[in-house]
Amino acid sequence: MKLAIIPARIGSKRIPKKNIKDFFGKPIISYSIQAAIESRLFYTVMVSTDSIEVAEIAHKAGASVPFIRTIENSNDSATLYQVVIEVLNEYKKIGIEFKEVCCILATAPFVTAEHLINSHKLLINSVKCILPNYQDAGQFYWAKVKGLYTRNTIISENSFYYPMDAIDINTIEDFENAKIKYNTQIKNTYDNEH
Q1: By C-alpha distance, which of 42, 3, 11, 21 is closest to 169?
Q2: Is the predicted pLDDT of residue 188 greater than 50, yes or no?
Q3: CA 180 → CA 9, 117, 165, distances in Å?
Q4: What is the spatial distance between Cα 28 and Cα 23, in angstroms, rounded to a whole number?
């Protein structure tokens, strides 16, 4: 079974409530949730958050929020790895274990169901596609659960990059640039289809 985890704590120093900030009429997290659901890859699409407000938005978008994230994993020093392991351990407590996990960032409106499906194929076929000239755009991360428990990081020496055109949103400037880029992509797609 495969699990989609969308980490979305409420605290953000550079962009207040970044994970639920409006992005073309809906909370930005809803794009990640929608892509995961539309991929039909996952047993469940869950949001890991420390916020009731985020949880309510996630529920409305179709995700599950089976528990509220611990205080220890809600601060600035908590890593994605720690968040993912916490989620996996919580599911273990109720007898649900996963073979593969995909951590999709809440601010990743450029991720589509197709990206998730195609990148999963690379994962299960153990494709090596290490491209040193690319940089991590902070969109999503696949991992085999068994391997996660043997290391302390999501990205390892066996990791591969999945090339895609996206913006890692960390600042207000990034957010505004992402809106311009997204709007251009949507317009280009519409123009090509009509």
Answers
A1: 21
A2: yes
A3: 25, 26, 13
A4: 5
The domain in which residue 187 lies consists of 2-193
What are 5's strand-pairing partners? 46, 103
| CATH number, residue 19 | 3.90.550.10
- Map tokens 């494709």 to a residue: 127
Residue type, 95: G
Q: How many distinct structural domains can be found in the chain? A: 1
Burial label, 69 (beta-carbon count in 10 A; 0-12, 13-18, 19+): buried
pLDDT score at 194: 40
Edge-to-edge order in the sheet of strand 2-7: 44-48, 2-7, 100-104, 140-144
| pLDDT score at 138 | 82
